[in-house]
Amino acid sequence: MKANTGSSYITTADGTQIFYKDWGTGQPLVFHHGWPLSADDWDAQLMFFLGQGCRVIAHDRRGHGRSTQTVSGHDMDTYAADVAELVKVLDLTDAVHIGHSTGGGEVTRYVARHGTGNARVAKAVLISAIPPLFMKSEKNPDGVPKEVVDEIRNGTANHRSQFYKDITIPFYGFNRPGATVSEGIRENWWRQGMMGGIKAQYDCIEVLSQTEFYDDLAIIDVPVLVMHGEDDQICPFLTTGAESVKLLKHGTLKSYPGLPHGMPTTHAEQINADLLAFIKA
Fold first, then answer.
1. 1 within domain boundaries
2. Does the keyword Methyltransferase apply (predicted)?
């Protein structure tokens, strides 16, 4: 297995530079961020699992964070292929892939297409994730209405900076009675979002809302932990997390009453403990 480098870039087959962090030694844990964020969204997890003796790896999806602001390649197959190239360069085996929100879709597609029938993947975790399908359709009648998705598109295309500030309120459940609002968390979300390219982030809305993962989930043959807040205002629990686990061969659902979409940040201690238990089991 190739030694880690702290942080660096790989160059994919189409010339895109993908930024990644690679810290520590031990079993590799690969973290996949949500829209429109970056590897920095995993700070609380990277620090915790580094302290647990794990090797922690997190990348910025193409067009996001410090990776190339590409005009093309914004589809789930390409996202998964980029991860496969990173895994190959780092020569990772027996890895646990952990994805939040859109990153959960990326994990699902990567493991289904590139992580079965080999020693690359040991387990996977889907946190507040988009599979099996985000947007309302005939197959997903209780999904998020197209009108809501169009509001996200409009906000991103026409007033991205303000929209990115506003969306942090439901994202972290800061609009719930008794919630303690953290301006630092909100500003960090905004910072990460504004680091990325608007074209990539706009295109990614279609990817996260319309990509279907029914077949991918059924293919996956490693243990998968599905973690989802029951008060998720972004990816509704009943149509995403609760449905995903039904399609997995070896899936376990852990739901959290009252927790928001951004629970890896707002409830990091609880999420980290449950992740550790699953990884060590």
1. no
2. no
Query: Among the options 22, 40, 203, 232, which is catalytic?
Result: 232
Say whether 59 is catalytic: no
Q: Is the dihedral of CA 270, 272, 273, 275 positive or negative?
A: positive
The reported pTM is 0.97
User: 33 an active-site residue?
Assistant: no
Task: Express each pLDDT in 80-94 by its tens digit.
Answer: 999 999 999 999 999
Q: Is residue 252 part of a domain?
A: yes
What are the φ/ψ torsions at residue 78 (nearest 5 degrees)? -70, -40
Confidence of residue 177 (pLDDT cuts 50, 70, 90): very high
Is 77 part of the annotated catalytic residue set?
no
From 101, 128, 209, 244, the catalytic residue: 101
- State the pLDDT at residue 4: 65
The confidence score (pLDDT) of residue 105 equals 98
Domain count, the chain: 1
d(CA 211, CA 63): 18
Q: Give 254's contacts (C-beta < 8 A, 6+ positions apart).
A: 225, 226, 227, 228, 274
